[in-house]
């Protein structure tokens, strides 16, 4: 892994742990899992895993912030305050309004959990709750998440490369796409019981990526943010983060990843195909039928009336790393 020493100056990372060394990871993870499940219920009380060890023992759950993936100089941005990232959410299983997931997901039980890797692979496997934190190298990466409703955030995610999971499964030559699925559990997810609350979606929530997109080093499976386990409203215990695509691709609370031959169906495309395509690459030149996609409101420290409107960048600013994936494709048609 390449650690650049430059261009971190503009990222305000004071809330993010700066240095971690590897200690007894499994122990830490266990403690973290316990804490995660218990304290996520109250966002303000959610303790950092690093609080467990006092000041002199910096624990090392994940590697140092991966500067290779943090926003570069021209786009160096202020982190969105944690409080805003965990209270302004889209998670329709817990209500279609932004404030609802933080309220309605508080009792969501994520341990035990099973994430099943299946389909066109030589080595299908299942990850349980502990495995999510210990089977792969966790890193912290600062990524922008840009939603179709034209707001965006800059979040320090903790996760591992989706590519590592793909390699472990050893896809067959027939595996062309990955089909992701969120938990279906109407008892726990009120939006799955009540169609109106759940925004009229037919659950489970589904998403998909092409194999080369899944292998791109920017795509991660995230298990935490701001040095803590993911709170339920942000997709505990594990969610996808694809920073060059509109936020709806970043499916939460994933229980299945199936390798398939054909492009899989995806929730928002099923609901409104003229508004939400399979690719969903952030593209300021292609308007949503009901609004422009040319600019976004960056959620920072300002109040709701703060004017943080900025121009949207193609591929959410990650064009250098991902534009090549779509060479020769008409991205106006394949939105
Ligand atoms: N995953 C599931 N299962 N259900 C959802 O409703 N919403 C998506 C995505 N993943 C959603 C989901 C949308 S529209 C966005 S913008 C992001 O999650 C929001 O992620 P955040 O709440 O962590 O910011």
UniProtKB/TrEMBL annotation:
Keyword Oxidoreductase recorded: yes
KW Cell inner membrane (keyword) present: no
Known catalytic reactions: L-methionyl-[protein] + a quinone + H2O = L-methionyl-(R)-S-oxide-[protein] + a quinol; L-methionyl-[protein] + a quinone + H2O = L-methionyl-(S)-S-oxide-[protein] + a quinol
Key words, A-Z: Metal-binding, Molybdenum, Oxidoreductase, Signal
Obligatory cofactor(s): Mo-molybdopterin
Protein origin, superkingdom: Bacteria
Residues binding Mo-molybdopterin: 89, 92-93, 147, 182, 234, 239, 250-252
Note describing how the cofactor binds: Binds 1 Mo-molybdopterin (Mo-MPT) cofactor per subunit.
A GO BP entry: protein repair
Its EC number(s): 1.8.5.-
Location of the Oxidoreductase molybdopterin-binding domain: 109-268
HAMAP family linked: MsrP
Subunit structure: Heterodimer of a catalytic subunit (MsrP) and a heme-binding subunit (MsrQ).
Protein family according to the UniProt entry: Belongs to the MsrP family.
Task performed by this protein: Part of the MsrPQ system that repairs oxidized periplasmic proteins containing methionine sulfoxide residues (Met-O), using respiratory chain electrons. Thus protects these proteins from oxidative-stress damage caused by reactive species of oxygen and chlorine generated by the host defense mechanisms. MsrPQ is essential for the maintenance of envelope integrity under bleach stress, rescuing a wide series of structurally unrelated periplasmic proteins from methionine oxidation.
Name under which the protein is recorded: Protein-methionine-sulfoxide reductase catalytic subunit MsrP
Organism: SAR92 clade bacterium
Organism classification: Bacteria, Pseudomonadati, Pseudomonadota, Gammaproteobacteria, Cellvibrionales
């Amino acid at each position: 892994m390449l650690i650049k020493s430059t261009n971190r100056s503009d990222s305000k990372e004071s809330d993010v742990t700066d240095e971690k060394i590897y200690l007894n990871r499994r122990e830490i993870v266990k403690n973290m899992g316990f804490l995660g499940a218990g304290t996520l219920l109250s966002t303000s009380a959610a303790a950092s895993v690093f609080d467990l060890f006092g000041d002199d023992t910096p624990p090392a759950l994940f590697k140092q912030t991966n500067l290779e993936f943090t926003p570069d100089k021209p786009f160096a941005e202020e982190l969105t305050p944690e409080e805003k990232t965990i209270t302004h959410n889209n998670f329709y299983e817990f209500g279609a309004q932004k404030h609802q997931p933080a309220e309605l997901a508080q009792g969501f039980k994520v341990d035990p959990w099973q994430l099943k890797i299946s389909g066109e692979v030589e080595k299908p496997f299942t990850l349980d709750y502990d495995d999510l934190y210990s089977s792969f190298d966790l890193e912290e990466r600062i990524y922008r998440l840009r939603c179709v409703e034209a707001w965006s955030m800059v979040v320090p995610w903790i996760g591992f490369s989706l590519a590592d999971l793909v390699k472990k499964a050893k896809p067959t030559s027939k595996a062309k796409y990955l089909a992701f699925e969120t938990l279906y559990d109407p008892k726990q997810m009120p939006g799955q019981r009540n169609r109106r609350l759940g925004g009229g979606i037919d659950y489970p929530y589904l998403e998909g990526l092409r194999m080369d997109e899944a292998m791109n080093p920017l795509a991660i499976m995230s298990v935490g943010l701001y040095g803590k386990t993911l709170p339920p409203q942000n997709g505990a215990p594990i969610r996808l983060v694809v920073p060059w695509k509109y936020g709806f691709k970043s499916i939460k609370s994933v229980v299945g990843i199936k390798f398939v031959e054909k492009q899989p169906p995806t929730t928002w495309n099923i609901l409104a195909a003229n508004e939400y395509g399979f690719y969903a690459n952030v593209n300021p030149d292609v308007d949503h039928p009901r609004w422009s996609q040319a600019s976004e409101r960056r959620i920072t420290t300002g109040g709701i009336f703060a004017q943080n409107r900025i121009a949207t960048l193609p591929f959410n600013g990650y064009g250098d790393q991902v534009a090549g994936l779509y060479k020769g494709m008409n991205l106006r048609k394949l939105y």
